[in-house]
């Protein structure tokens, strides 16, 4: 594994917020505006409405942050959410992120819109783990349904062939505005293959005719039938990402999906969308205790992750912090960011008297009056 960023990490980085602060100087202003778009502040503010309840004197000499998800063991239930175009902030892009994830035994959910092919990401993960003598972490692929179902299927087959073990189907971004032009040299590497040559599915191209209803985008947007068809088309576990409504969570389970991600896409799609965190308890109640529910949206610390799990998530993902850490420190930055999160998470678990990440429950949090 080659270090793709030679500069030492800034000495004053102790939290994910520090990475965000430093990142502004490493990312050009147009890219910064693009990646920061969304209502992250609403997602973040929701965490302030819940407080963790410490349990001093609980026996914590032994314990584990490990968690089994969809039959795979994760050292810590903290994953890297699918985020498009890592090369926007670092020349090595997803290769560097994958190496960092492998070094930390963490799962990177590779985006359909990655700036490096899904095959190269999988290979970089395996090579890095092998070089370090570590087990290969579970590898997940995030799927955006393509305008032509055959193109979607081609992506699924490529993900299967490349060794991905879980398919995360993102359903909340089929219709959205897109006004960011990719800089020269950065492409949706998975989609330039002639077999899958299509524009990104969620790009609202300027077009004549209806803008929303009746438009090509609206006609091509995935539906529950699409989920059921995908369920038939692959033997990989299917996780539906981008649900907030408890009825949709239940419908995903009924359509055969093996899990869901409660997420509002960092508030980047729908102006005024509800923050993701407060949606968790109703979703958990709708699907019952044993159905895999992941969460993302505003997680910036181990305490945040613990709150989300106390409110019903089995695991959490972080999105934007990957780009901040990648911009500041390349492979080392992302690995360090993951290390910070994991250490904070283990500390918060221990301080709340919780020694088993599989037994995190609502007793760990209380609502903050007026928070
Ligand atoms: C995203 N997200 C996203 N989701 C997805 O399924 N496929 C994708 O390609 C992307 N791309 C993407 C780019 C950028 C710049 C951001 C910020 C987000 C959404 C992502 O997976 C996740 O839902 C949120 O980022 C989680 O919120 P935080 O952790 O960023 O606050």
Protein traits:
single chain; 371 residues; alpha/beta; TIM Barrel; eight-stranded parallel β-sheet; two-stranded antiparallel sheet; 12 helices; 12 strands; globular; binds ligand FNR
Describe, in plain words, how this protein is organized in 3D.
The chain has an 8-stranded parallel beta sheet with strand order 4-11-10-9-8-7-6-5. Strands 1-12 form a two-stranded antiparallel ribbon. α1 runs antiparallel to α12, α4 runs parallel beside α12 and α9 packs parallel to α10. α6 links the parallel β6 and β7. It is an alpha/beta fold and 371 residues long. The protein is built from 12 helices and 12 strands. The longest helix is centred in the last third of the chain and has 32 residues. Helix content is 37%, strand content 12%. It has a single domain, classed as Alpha-Beta Barrel (TIM Barrel). About 3% of the residues have low confidence. The chain binds ligand FNR. Ligand FNR binds next to α3.
Main sheet properties: 8 strands, parallel
Q: How far apart are the first and last residues' alpha carbons, in Å? A: 46 Å
Number of strands: 12
Q: Given the helix and strand composition, which structural class is it?
A: alpha/beta
Full CATH superfamily name: Aldolase class I
- Are any ligands bound, and if so which? ligand FNR
Number of helices: 12
Determine and state the CATH class: Alpha Beta
Mean pLDDT: 93
């Amino acid at each position: 594994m080659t270090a793709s960023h030679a500069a030492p990490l800034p000495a004053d980085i102790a939290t994910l917020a520090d990475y965000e602060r430093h990142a502004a100087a490493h990312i050009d202003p147009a890219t910064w505006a693009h990646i920061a778009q969304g209502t992250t502040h609403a997602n973040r503010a929701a965490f302030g409405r819940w407080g963790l309840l410490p349990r001093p004197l609980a026996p914590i000499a032994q314990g584990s942050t490990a968690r089994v998800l969809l039959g795979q063991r994760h050292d810590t239930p903290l994953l890297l959410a699918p985020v498009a175009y890592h090369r926007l902030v670092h020349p090595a892009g997803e290769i560097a992120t994958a190496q960092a994830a492998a070094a930390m035994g963490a799962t990177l959910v590779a985006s359909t819109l990655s700036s490096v092919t899904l095959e190269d990401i999988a290979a970089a993960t395996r090579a890095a783990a092998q070089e370090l003598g570590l087990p290969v972490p579970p590898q997940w692929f995030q799927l955006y349904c393509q305008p032509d179902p055959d193109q979607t299927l081609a992506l699924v087959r490529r993900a299967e062939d490349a060794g991905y073990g879980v398919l995360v189907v993102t359903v909340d971004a089929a219709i959205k505005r897109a006004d960011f032009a990719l800089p020269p040299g950065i492409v949706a590497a998975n989609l330039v293959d002639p077999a899958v040559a299509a524009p990104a599915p969620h790009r609202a191209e300027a077009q004549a005719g209806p803008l929303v209803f009746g438009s090509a985008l609206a006609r091509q947007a995935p539906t529950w039938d699409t989920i059921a068809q995908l369920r038939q088309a692959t033997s990989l576990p299917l996780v539906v990402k981008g649900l907030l409504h408890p009825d949709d969570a239940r419908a995903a389970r009924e359509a055969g999906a093996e899990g869901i991600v409660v997420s509002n896409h960092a508030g980047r799609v729908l102006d005024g969308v509800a923050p993701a965190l407060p949606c968790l308890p109703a979703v958990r109640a709708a699907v019952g205790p044993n159905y895999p529910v992941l969460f993302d949206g505003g997680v910036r610390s181990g305490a945040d992750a613990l709150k989300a799990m106390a409110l019903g998530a089995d695991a959490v993902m972080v999105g934007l912090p990957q780009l901040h850490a990648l911009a500041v420190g390349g492979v080392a930055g992302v690995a360090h960011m993951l290390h910070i999160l994991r250490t904070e998470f283990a500390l918060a678990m221990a301080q709340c008297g919780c020694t088993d990440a599989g037994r995190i429950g609502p007793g760990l949090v209380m609502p903050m009056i007026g928070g």
